[in-house]
Write a structure and sequence with these properties.
mainly alpha
Length: 385
């Protein structure tokens, strides 16, 4: 049976392309229209744009001043819902050049940049092939969490592009630049925080070192701009995420079923240990599987996650395919993709179980011949680090 499916190499990409196109059509015809009329007022970019406005007009010490944020959001126009900006300062920095434009125009540019980041990620990581490559693009854009993330302006696409760029640079013997690119995960760190650590334990020390230096530099600049008062405000804002009002941010994370108590802490430690074990086991190979383990481990360990953040599971899947997925892993990726599309129906537990199964598969020694589902363009030889 396995041999039968493997021989149908043209059928499956064509089926994938068809499914992706159907899903894109569904998103455009069914899912998008309810958001069109509220595209601007509900878009999360309004938070970064308002925070950037506060930083420029009032100084970065007031970046997390909730009253100043509220005034800046309300100044955008009627119907804009004020919410706290809790992202790290670099996201506000990224939005700052767009302040030269009215919000509506800046939002269009932001959306175009998110789509460009997704396209860049796909271009670098997706499996090659005349039908296969377009099929993966359609599947990427069609799956609802990814489409929704673009509709509401979430920065996950930037993190995906940073990880993909770091992988490409590592494969082309540019470990230092790979670490610099990886530092952009600071825009939404919970999506890939374990990736640098997994690269370190798998032998990519130079990439980890460059990431650490770049991240420390970003952190020092942020601290200098915030100052003691601004840092205290940031701590106060982050403390709000512990209240019931922020339960929605835990809906698809492990803290949803486990809560925020000691059981969560023990589970997080176990997830991190398993991700690092998976990376260590793959230390004689390329960076693909350690990076995939870092992504899956990050998503499983974080207590705060929206379903739009499952975009990173697509990135992890592409990395696994490039390394040469086993039959079991391919089946798991297919099931996982279906779960992502149905995420608002199945909710968190089946997806969490699929993530855990994928992470275990990365750490478990496989008896199957490696490379059973290897994509073209993946190299076995480890580049100079």
């Amino acid at each position: 049976m396995v041999a039968y499916f493997r021989t149908r190499r043209q059928v499956w990409p064509a089926a994938g392309l068809l499914v992706g196109v159907i899903l894109i059509g569904f998103d455009l015809v069914v899912a998008a229209p309810p958001y069109v009329s509220q595209y601007a007022v509900r878009n999360d970019f309004r938070l970064a744009y308002a925070a950037a406005t506060v930083g420029i007009q009032s100084g970065y010490g007031h970046l997390y001043d909730l009253a100043a944020q509220k005034l800046a959001i309300e100044a955008l126009g009627a119907g804009f819902n004020p919410q706290p900006f809790i992202s790290p300062p670099p996201l506000a920095w990224l939005a700052t050049p767009l302040l030269v434009l009215p919000f509506q125009a800046a939002l269009v540019i932001w959306t175009a940049l998110l789509l460009a980041a997704l396209a860049w990620t796909w271009f670098l990581l997706a499996p090659a092939g005349r039908i296969t490559k377009p099929a993966h693009l359609a599947l990427l854009l069609g799956v609802f969490p990814v489409a929704f993330g673009v509709m509401v302006g979430q920065p996950g696409a930037w993190v995906a592009a940073a990880v993909a760029t770091a992988w490409w640079l590592t494969r082309h013997d540019r470990p230092v630049w790979a670490g610099v690119a990886l530092s952009l995960i600071v825009l939404k760190p919970q999506l890939a925080l374990l990736v640098p650590l997994c690269l370190l334990v798998s032998g990519h020390a130079r990439t980890f070192g460059a990431w650490l230096v770049a991240t420390l530099f970003i952190g020092l600049v942020a601290l200098a701009l915030l100052g003691p008062e601004g840092l205290a405000r940031y701590r106060d804002v982050l403390a709000q995420t512990q209240t019931p009002a922020w339960d929605i941010t835990r809906r698809y994370s492990i803290s949803g079923p486990l809560g925020l108590g000691p059981i969560l802490t023990v589970t997080q430690v176990a997830v991190v240990a398993l991700a690092l074990l998976a990376a260590w086991r793959r230390r004689r190979g390329g960076p693909e599987l350690p990076m995939a383990a870092g992504i899956v481990g990050s998503l499983l360990a974080t207590p705060y996650l929206g379903f739009q953040d499952f975009l990173m599971l697509i990135v992890a899947g592409w990395l696994v395919l490039r390394a040469g997925a086993t039959t079991w892993q391919v089946a798991l990726l297919v099931v996982g993709y279906a779960l992502l599309q149905l995420s608002q129906v199945v909710l968190s537990i089946p997806i969490l179980l699929a993530e855990a199964a994928l992470l275990v598969s990365l750490a478990w020694p496989s008896a199957e011949t490696p490379g059973a589902f290897r994509t073209s363009g993946a190299k076995r030889a480890l580049p100079t680090r």
